[in-house]
Write a structure and sequence with these properties.
It comes from Pseudomonas emilianonis. Keywords: Signal. This is Protein activator. The chain has 164 residues and is α+β, with helices and mostly antiparallel strands. The protein has a single domain, classed as Porin (Beta Barrel). It contains two helices and twelve strands, in the order αββββαββββββββ. The chain has an eight-stranded antiparallel β-barrel. Strands 1-12 form a two-stranded antiparallel ribbon.
Length: 164
């Protein structure tokens, strides 16, 4: 019985090293502390308009954290058709956190839209493409029962890269 205890302890230490080292190597943005601008498109569908996507242009401003662990979106404007002009960001700042070598999560996302139908904070899954330095919505995202984010993509300048 005495031989089992040291083996269990050694196994626990080895597991701790494996899992501990994987947590230390979390994905980060390579441009630590950098300010950036981004442009792209966003299309939102709301139930009263039979989920028809309303496409808008979007301009973002932000700052990468000093340790690269996240980027904070501090400003956003929506432009385009008449519905875009009454739409806009809510709940700023939004936080973009790299989750792997090619994915990120945008938390706190909230949008002013017709009848406040999209005024629910959301965490939006994003895909990052190294080929064109663009973040894109991985799939349509249901904000709530009356609002869906159909497309959302933006290209930061200078480009942000994720270090796994």
């Amino acid at each position: 019985m005495q031989h089992v205890i040291p083996r269990i302890s050694l196994a626990a230490v080895l597991l701790g090293l494996v899992f501990g080292s994987s947590m230390v190597r979390a994905a980060t943005f390579a441009q630590t502390g950098a300010a950036f601008n981004a442009t792209g498109t966003i299309a939102t569908g709301i139930k009263p308009l039979v989920w028809t996507p309303i496409p808008c242009s979007i301009a973002l401003t932000g700052q990468v954290a000093a340790d690269g662990s996240s980027a904070t979106i501090t400003g956003a404007t929506f432009t385009g058709n008449a519905l875009c002009n009454i739409s806009g960001p809510l709940n700023l700042p939004w936080t973009l956190v790299p989750t792997s070598a090619n994915t990120a999560s945008l938390s706190g996302f909230m949008q002013k839209f017709a009848y406040d139908s999209c005024a629910t904070p959301s965490a939006v899954a994003m895909q990052w493409s190294a080929a064109d330095d663009t973040f894109s919505l991985t799939s349509p995202h249901t904000v709530n029962s009356t609002c869906r984010l159909i497309t959302f993509n933006f290209k930061p300048s200078p480009a942000l890269t994720i270090t796994p």
